[in-house]
Amino acid sequence: MVLNLVNAMAERGLHIDLLLIKTHSRHLHEIHPAVNRIDLGSRHTATSLLPLARYLKQTNPPCLLAAKDRAGRIAVIARILAAASRTRLILRLGTNLTAAFAHKPGWRLFLRRLPIRLLYPRIDRIIAVSEGVRADTLTVSGVTPEKVVVVRNPVVTPQLLEAAEAPSPHPWLGDPKNPVILGVGRLTVQKDFPTLLRAFADLRARRPCRLIILGDGRQREKLQAMSDELGISEALALPGFTANPYAYMKRADLFVLSSRWEGSPNALTEAMALGTAVVSTDCPSGPNELLDGGRIAPLVPMGDWQALSKAMQRMLDQPPDPTLLCESVREYNAQQSADHYLEIMGLASV
């Protein structure tokens, strides 16, 4: 989503330096040609402290936007080291910190939360991607409420809508006798695809259907073994990462988000923008806001594969009006989001 934001700002003619820690991202080729890429020469956020401080001291930009929690904490220290008092520091938080830290043991949890309490008050403004993330940030960080503002993710772009019209990427898509259920995301604990597999196996026992999960990750072998145990391997496809998931989303009969936690789930937003029926877990944070408490589409408890299976069947049997889904994510437009960011960054008149 940061890529969409950077491109939307670049289209306005702003000079943007994109500070890179990792230069091998699959999406770097999509960056607007006017954006100036700067390699900080480090492989980890923690080791980028001194290069970032040097950049701030030499450049003294009017604003620095940090895209994640760790980057924000490093940016606070770098600004102090560089004595870059002119630089306004903005942090974008895209996840629910409490949920993300929940699996950590006590001492590691303490070590993660203490720097937040110490450093977040030195940030000028914090942009949360959902109301749930905002509320959690206030609790975790202890900053004053006026410092944290919600701006919706810059999800919906003309490029997304155009990419969705690409030719069908999989032979299963478009078969009315075997509706396709789609999951998208890294194959990690956070996305909880095992719950989706169990729900799918239960649903498939009652009606024909197929499941495609896009993404790479450490749980691939576990999911493949689990599909064999559940007897659904012939109805499951794991194509891995794809640069264009939107062609899948556009043609899938149902998109399912089975996550344990999010911030504001972009894949769910993208599917809705394309008019595809959706089901989601009611995880912290974001789905409840996107689906208006379950009014727009079903929300089910996290990890409850039986409830998920029933909700999936309901959406396949009675899909919602695609127009309603599209309308419900209008405020996730990239240009509108960029306007809000620039206003908060003090660059609206630039």
From TrEMBL:
Q: What is this protein called?
A: Glycosyltransferase
Where would I find the Glycosyltransferase subfamily 4-like N-terminal domain in this sequence?
2-155
Give any single GO term for biological process.
Answer: carbohydrate derivative metabolic process
A GO term for molecular function: glycosyltransferase activity
> Which PANTHER family has this protein been placed in?
GLYCOSYLTRANSFERASE
Can you give the residue ranges of the Glycosyl transferase family domain?
176-324
